[in-house]
Design a protein that fits this description.
The complex is a heterodimer.
Chain A lengths: L19 H37 L5 H20 L7 H21 L5 H29 L6 H29 L12 H21 L4 H19 L7 H23 L2 H24 L4 H6 L2 H16 L9 H9 L3 E6 L1 H5 L3 H13 L3 E6 L9 H8 L7 E3 H4 L8 E5 L8 H4 L18 E6 L19 E5 L2 H14 L1
Parallel strand pairs in A: 1-2, 1-4, 2-3, 4-5, 5-6
Helix pairs in contact in A: 1-2, 1-9, 4-5, 4-8, 5-6, 5-7, 5-8, 6-7, 8-9, 12-18, 14-18
Chain B lengths: L2 H20 L8 H11 L3 H8 L7 H36 L1
Helix pairs in contact in B: 2-4, 3-4
Chain lengths: 497, 96
């Protein structure tokens, strides 16, 4: 697809300064072959994206797939730089260099535990870039006094909305996960009417711009409303649902890129954007399934409002119950003389960077003839697969990692379940208490094991803000302290057995 | 609708179906790297940003375009590198 007429600009090429025959030849070359070459390169790049994404879905080929997609991106960028409309090489190359530098530093500095917020942050930048493309285009068309065609106009308005929501929504999700602001859902009275008002304002502004496209103030009004909508979208959603939100925003950033593709009429943007939009939606659905929540309830039921009342009611009775706490020496005895131990790692283990100590403990136990397995909840950590990444980092053998479906029937024959920094994913209330906000979420049934040891900093509630009756059970003993300290002490105590 | 726009719609819809199909069966282990990898691909907005800042002049739209170039490049480079970092760990494990 060639550029639309509206976007066509005539610039004197440097070659017109050459003697006529050469200039003619070169001009022909530039005009005839270059656009075709660019489009064909895009075709190759799009194919590489598809092959890359496909390979990313299988453990053996995932790393190759990522490299293939990156090569596709490089090709697409180089091809675009050759576009005849692109004359501002130095500045663009500078921009690419600055962006690459920041991106590379961020990628190497980030801790594995901070991966969810990292994805959120990067995602927000992508959304912002898509929205900026629309704003820049609008500005340019307006300055040049060109008539904005209806289809471009609608694409720009959609791009601004989706890109803007992606940007501020992702930033807020990042802030919530990073702990910059509280992860609890924030709601206020008249929230729904206010959102409706914003949406109507967006629609009114868009309608106005479609009729009279040359109003800069109204355009900026629409941009601002889109940005506020992004904030309002994520504000009432609790920290526990943040992975789903980030996944959804990832999908949205793809749609925003596709919309930007319609603005500048570029197939490459449309294809890549649509691929990400569709695949992101599938991933979001998978995550919702793992948490046994529908996407609708995540987005519109404001988790926290119901949770606060239900959680308070449930905990009132439980708070009087006693908690049995032990020291590492006793814990080591229970573990060392068990036949089978199932380790349930949670986000607390990840935050404490205790995965290496945990592996050491597992190795030590295995040397003593204990059968050690890891039970991985689908949303352990903060995203599906997050815990697998962290344990792989610590060289835990893949065969020892077991899915929830795999391990749950085995808890009956397990001597000790060792819960390290996990809370909501082992809360029996999800099975029994219909009033609990996490009711219905599939959990790891550690309470079926003969003994349960829970390593935890204190009695605080988990991410979902719900009290955990597991801690008060007869068979449960608590080991209070940071995951890293406690596991470290367990290792040395087990060695002395 | 112009024929160009219709062709663009065809591309959009077909690419969407492709996206739905290729992400069909993925083991949970790979969900986080997959999200991060596809997130890097959504940094494709950098192409739009390059086109938007292509004019050899200094005005608001070029400056906005350049800002978009920087932001999208952070997304692309950061996304691919971080994905590689995550996947590297799996590779180390299978090798040992």
């Amino acid at each position: 697809m060639e550029k639309t007429v509206s976007y066509y600009r005539i610039f004197p090429t440097p070659y017109s300064l050459l003697p006529t025959p050469y200039s003619l030849l070169l001009l022909t070359l530039m005009n005839e072959f270059l656009p075709t070459g660019i489009q064909l390169t895009y075709l190759v790049a799009a194919s590489l994206f598809i092959v890359g994404l496909k390979k990313l879905g299988s453990p053996a080929t995932a790393r190759n797939g990522n490299v293939i997609a990156a090569v596709g991106m490089l090709l697409a960028i180089v091809a675009t730089m050759l576009d005849q409309q692109v004359l501002n090489y130095e500045m663009i190359l500078l921009g690419l260099a600055i962006g690459s530098g920041i991106g590379a530093i961020a990628a190497y500095k980030v801790q594995m535990t901070e991966m969810p917020q990292m994805v959120g942050l990067l995602n927000g930048l992508g959304g912002a870039a898509s929205a900026l493309v629309a704003v820049a285009e609008f500005w340019r068309l307006l300055q040049h006094g060109e008539v904005i065609p209806l289809d471009i106009n609608i694409s720009m308005l959609l791009d601004v909305l989706i890109g803007g929501v992606t940007f501020t929504g992702s930033m807020l999700a990042f802030a919530k996960l990073q702990g910059l602001i509280s992860g609890t859902p924030i709601t206020f009275s008249f929230q729904q009417p206010f959102n409706l008002l914003l949406l109507s304002a967006y629609l009114a502004g868009s309608t106005y711009l479609i009729v009279t496209p040359d109003s800069l103030p109204v355009f900026f009004g629409v941009v601002s409303v889109s940005l506020v909508l992004g904030v309002m979208f994520v504000l009432p959603i609790g920290g526990g649902d943040m992975p789903v939100v980030i996944s959804l925003l990832n999908s949205l950033s793809g749609v925003a890129a596709a919309a930007a593709g319609f603005v500048v009429m570029n197939n490459m943007l449309i294809i890549a954007g649509a691929l990400v939009g569709a695949s992101g939606l599938i991933l979001t659905e998978i995550m919702c399934k793992a948490m046994n929540r529908s996407l609708f309830s995540v987005l519109f039921s404001a988790f926290g409002t119901g949770a606060a009342s239900g959680g308070a009611g449930g905990s009132a009775g439980a708070i009087d119950q006693t908690v049995r706490s032990i020291d590492p020496e006793e814990g080591a005895m229970m573990l060392g003389y068990a036949r089978s131990v199932v380790i349930v790692p949670g986000y607390g283990m990840a935050v404490a960077q205790a995965q290496h100590n945990v592996r050491e403990l597992a190795d030590q136990l295995e040397r003593m003839g204990v059968d050690v397995k890891y039970a991985i909840h689908p949303v352990a950590g903060r995203m599906p697969g997050h815990m697998n990444v962290l344990l792989a980092e610590a060289n835990v053998p893949y065969e020892q990692l077991h899915d929830m479906e795999d391990i749950n029937p085995q808890f009956d024959q397990t001597d000790v379940a060792l819960v390290i920094g996990a809370n909501d994913v082992v809360n029996p209330a999800a099975r029994s208490d219909a009033n609990s906000p996490i009711y219905g979420m599939p959990i790891l049934e550690v309470d079926r094991a003969k003994q349960t040891i829970v390593i935890k900093r204190g009695m605080s509630t988990g991410f979902a803000g719900v009290d955990n009756e597991l801690f008060y059970k007869q068979k449960t003993t608590m080991l209070f302290g940071s995951a890293k300290d406690m596991v470290g002490k367990l290792v040395s105590e087990v060695k002395q057995l | 609708m112009t024929s160009g726009l219709i062709a663009a719609f065809f591309v959009f819809v077909l690419a969407s179906f492709t996206g739905f199909e290729i992400i069909n069966k993925v083991p949970p282990t790979l969900h986080t790297p997959l999200m991060s990898g596809s997130n890097a691909i959504s940094g494709i907005a950098v192409l739009g940003a390059i086109v938007a800042s292509g004019a050899r002049e200094t005005n608001v739209s070029v400056i906005l375009g350049l800002v978009a170039v920087v932001l999208a490049t952070v997304n692309v480079v950061g996304g691919f590198l971080v994905t590689d970092r995550m996947l590297q760990m799996f590779k180390k494990k299978t090798a040992s």
